[in-house]
UniProtKB/TrEMBL annotation:
GO cellular component terms listed in the entry, alphabetical order: cytoplasm
Family indicated by similarity: Belongs to the PhzF family.
Protein name: Isomerase
Organism of this sequence: Paremcibacter congregatus
Keywords: Isomerase
Single GO molecular function: isomerase activity
NCBIfam families xrefs: PhzF_family
List of catalytic residues: E47
InterPro entries named among the record's database cross-references: Phenazine_PhzF-like
Amino acid sequence: MNEYTIFQVDAFTTRLFGGNPAAVVPLADWLDEATLQNIAQENNLSETAFFTRSDQDDADFHLRWFTPGAEIDLCGHATLATAHVLFNELDWYEETLRFSTQEAGILTVSRGEGSRLSLDFPARPGAAIETSHELVDALGIQPLAVYKARDHMALFATEADVLKVTPDMDKLCRINPDGVIITAPSQDPEVDFVSRFFAPNHGVPEDPVTGSAHCTLVPFWADKLGKTTLEARQVSARGGELSCIYDGDQGRVYMSGQAVTYLKGAIFV
């Protein structure tokens, strides 16, 4: 049995018990996939991030993310949490971190103003699709329109509509294997749009704050509102705030936020 350090970090928030909690586990060498999945399942958080040092010239670390149910291809809040751990707990000395990932390419996280960190992620614009009866039935309310990239994204008229959605998770599981985003304009004049995200197939009925969903949300709202700098709020029970920039020419979404360390301990595997 071996001992490994573990951190738990609340991401996309300035306060404990806000934002989205993620576990972060530094590794000297990769454990087998079944063990990584078991650790994530035991943590029972929306994501557990694992990282090792990288021997690639264009990356400092290799990064992987696991939900309680499966490994996923992209995760924003656990990347922010990992960067927070490296910068603030493990004394990473550079101003930028470069993460090599299995499917999302090289992701960078840079120190921003104050304690803010900025993530450079691939844009994933959604394409308009027909609104299915199955999706309406699962959400319990008719959206204005539906789009699809990795996730389905349903557009609603008001923030109140987004807040009152109480999806049938069993039915939602049959809509998309990854997740379903719902979104609307914000009622707060300081915020451009709000969203919620559901991923019941991954053991995450509602995710508190979802960076990867904003890879689809930000291109959509940038085009709809005619602006490239946007303030976003995920209106889950815990809630979270993201400042976003869309670079359509380069196909990138930049998200910035803060994080707070909640826990540091050890696991024995």
